[in-house]
Amino acid sequence: MWSCNNSKKSNVNKGEENKQLTAKDILGNPKYLAMSYGGYRYADHSIEPTLEELKDDMKILHAMGIRIVRTYKVHLPQAENLLQAISELKANDPSFEMYVMLGAWIDCKNAWTDQEPIHNEESEANKPQMEKAVALANQYPDIVKVIAVGNEAMVKWAASYYVEPWVILKWVNYLQDLKKEGKLSQDVWVTSSDNFASWGGGGEEYHVEDLNNLIKAVDFLSVHTYPMHDTHYQPEFWLNQDGLEGKTDMEKIEISMLRAKEYAITQTANVKKYMESLGVNKPIHIGETGWASFSSGHYGTTGSKACDEYKEALYYQHMRDWTNGAGMSCFYFEGFDEPWKGGENSGNSEKHFGLFKVDGKAKYALWGEVDKGTFDGLTRNGNRITKTYNGDKDAMMKDVEVPPNAEEWHAN
């Protein structure tokens, strides 16, 4: 009797193990934390991360509970190599689990050239991007669970490359048709990853019929929200002194970061409100949000004083707490610093969004994980995972500044 029952139980477990998880199972599940990922380690973007370097990164992210990463380099070797790296890690270790949200870059005609961008026409490069994304999704169906059409491709401040929503809609419909025809798994979810304003959560200039049809066509909305950037561009929430009277410097910082969280929540709620005004009710997940640990420009000591490792850590925890509690995925931006971004200025904030430095040092947000031994035996660029500032919190806090008031802001 015991033997029979045990055999049945074993077969059930085996069936569960063989069941392929889908995007519906993964997105919004706090057991499957999400992260935005780029593996480029050098200022020279032409130097591709090696297969072993990609594996090292995936092991690090896996150790801290990340189970799905978002990347959009299908036109370069990184995306394909990343999928191969994950596949080989899974083959070598059945307990290794990692999935991918694969993005295809979308441009307008004349993007990134010395010619005037034509925003209502699309680049000829878009078609091969989409075809490559489909080919990779079909080659690695156990790993690729989402395809994203474009990355901040509709937001109008992306002046060098943005497209009108009909272009994104065209390619979303292309993917959805492939699913209907059996040429792409029906379990692959399709979205576009874009700024909250582009999804209808901002100005009325975005509220066009093609956007409405896009919202109806995608499987979920992948929304970007960046309160850090708005400490410079829309700083009212950051400069607001209400409720800060008599508070200590640390209390002011903590209140400011709670306001940053609320700012992100409000932007996302505005997207939801617009979506529902169309009679649509689909999942919303955060495709990108993050907080740089350093800036020598708009967000640094002569600007909004937003960037340091302490505020980055607070924001990271706030975003995890909020999205996990709300049943949303948050593809936090990002796992590792990428020196190729932001031009030649080493202090450009775009180079400093990682939770890890290029050499593998964990920033303050992850010091607790280092203490727990989460990264024991793992390396990046041949280095053990250790703490920034040599783990000296007092030294780290010396670089932390209180957000300015309006008078200080204008003086800068």
TrEMBL record:
SUPFAM superfamilies: (Trans)glycosidases. Its main location: membrane. This is Endo-1,3-beta-glucanase btgC. GO terms for molecular function: glucan endo-1,3-beta-D-glucosidase activity. Pfam families: Glyco_hydro_17. It comes from Hyunsoonleella jejuensis. GO terms for cellular component: cell surface; extracellular region; plasma membrane. It is found in: Cell membrane; Secreted, Cell wall. Glucanases play a role in cell expansion during growth, in cell-cell fusion during mating, and in spore release during sporulation. This enzyme may be involved in beta-glucan degradation. Active on laminarin and lichenan. PANTHER family: GLUCAN 1,3-BETA-GLUCOSIDASE, GLUCAN ENDO-1,3-BETA-GLUCOSIDASE BTGC. Keywords: Carbohydrate metabolism, Cell membrane, Cell wall, Cell wall biogenesis/degradation, Glycoprotein, Hydrolase, Membrane, Polysaccharide degradation, Secreted, Signal. InterPro entries: Beta-glucan_modifiers, GH, Glyco_hydro_17. GO terms for biological process: cell wall organization; polysaccharide catabolic process. The keyword Secreted applies.
